[in-house]
Amino acid sequence: KHDPTLLPDLIRLEKAISANLPNFVAKDQLENQQKLLRTGDIVGITTQVEGLDTSHTGLIEVIENVPRLLHASSSQAKVVLGPSIFEYVEASKSATGIVATRPIERR
Q1: Long-range CB contact pairs, 57-66, < 8 A, 24+
Q2: pTM for this one?
Q3: pLDDT per residue over 6-16, tens digit each?
């Protein structure tokens, strides 16, 4: 439910998150930087769409030294192993690059 007493906390949280936005790899740098991606990396496709940071997400699967995007395809209505992440981003008119993170094992 709508609770106006939460608004100051939400504003403070949004400012903290905005101050720590992740760095991203720009579309024009991705071809050279994609070699740093590893199987299991979580990737967000950054976008120029107003109000969104990312437009799509997926996992990286490296096959024959090519990082490919494993993602839920809306056009195919299933999870697919797509082309290289570079080709995927290049084909998108609204994509500006990627953000990526790598899960770590707990010890």
Answers
A1: 58/82, 60/85, 60/100, 62/37, 62/38, 65/35
A2: 0.76
A3: 888 888 888 87
